[in-house]
Amino acid sequence: MSRSRTGRVAGVCIAAAVAALLAVSAPARAGGVTVFAAASLKDAMDDVADLWAETTDHTAKVALAGSSTLARQIQHGAPVDVFISANTAWMDRLEADGLIVAERRVDLLRNTLVLVGHGHGDDAVDLSDPAALPARLGDGRLAMALVEAVPAGIYGKAALQSLGLWRTLEPRVAQADNVRAALALVSTGEAPLGIVYGTDAAADDSVSVLATFPEDSHPPIVYPAAPLADSTNALADRFVDFLQGPEARSAFERQGFDVTGG
Q: Mean pLDDT over residues 144-167, rounded?
């Protein structure tokens, strides 16, 4: 199964949400800032948008999806002011295309990569034992974000390759459109195990962390932020500054992110 029905539905819903945001983005830009942010930032960005409104009296219209989906929307001319990616590669592509303000780019956050299971009470999985994860998975599926496009999936595949598990587990992977859709597969019990960010696991009471992947098993999980080069919104730079300020820092830290910018 290359992708579950739940993952496909989640992808359609996110695409619709992005389209709806783009449809109203032009008038929204006059009184606020339009932000594209990685799906794993959902809870933190809810708080940041509220704090931004309280502090500045301006709105923050935030669209959340896989970083690859959002970056491609930007490449196709989406009228966005600020982009926050879940990896450096997609931001690098936009920078190479001249689509972001490179000198205002900042590495804002870091995250961890974890193995989660449905429910609570299961014993931890020893990732140093190559037989442990396949044995725990059994005949079930391993939920992951798209392994060739979405940062969480890319990190997860790299970690499994590093641990010598990818060839064994690849046929058992259920790919979802973004990391929150992968989390939902585990949360609802459609998949017994999944690979998500540590902050995603902390945001869902229906899953438990069974293991944390070693930092050296995957590239560093870095979230860069930058204003878009074609944005004429004076609030774009101000919002990037706000992301690095004390109010946003507290919001990110409450969700378990390691704040590196600011």
A: 97
**Is the pTM here over 0.90, yes or no?**
no
The vertex-160 CA angle with 158 and 165, nearest 5°, equals 145
Q: Yes or no: say if 18 and 69 are a contact pair by the CB < 8 Å rule.
A: yes
Q: How do strand 82-84 and strand 32-38 relate by DSSP bridges?
A: parallel
250 labelled ligand-binding: no
Looking at the structure of the chain, the number of domains it has is: 2
- Domain of 156, in residue numbers: 113-217
Q: Is 231 annotated as a binding residue?
A: no
CATH number where 34 lies: 3.40.190.10
Q: Check whether 106 is labelled as a binding-site residue.
A: no
85 in a known ligand binding site: no
Tens-digit pLDDT profile for residues 197-211: 999 999 999 999 999
Backbone angles phi, psi at 242, to 5 degrees: -60, -40
Q: Give dist(CA 254, CA 67) in Å, integer.
A: 22
Please name the residues in contact with 12: beta carbons below 8 A apart, sequence gap of 6 or more.
none
Quote the CA–CA distance of 110 and 185 in Å, as a whole number: 24
40 is in an annotated binding site: yes
Rg (CA), the chain: 18
What CA–CA distance (Å, rounded) separates 21 from 33?
Answer: 12
Clarify whether residues 131 and 177 are in a common domain.
Answer: yes
Residues 119 and 202 in one domain: yes
Residues ≥6 apart with Cβ < 8 Å to 197:
40, 111, 112, 113, 114, 152, 179, 221
Residue 13, both tokens? 């819903």
Residue 31: pLDDT band by 50, 70, 90 thresholds? confident
- Examine the pLDDT at 24 and tell me if it is beyond 50: no
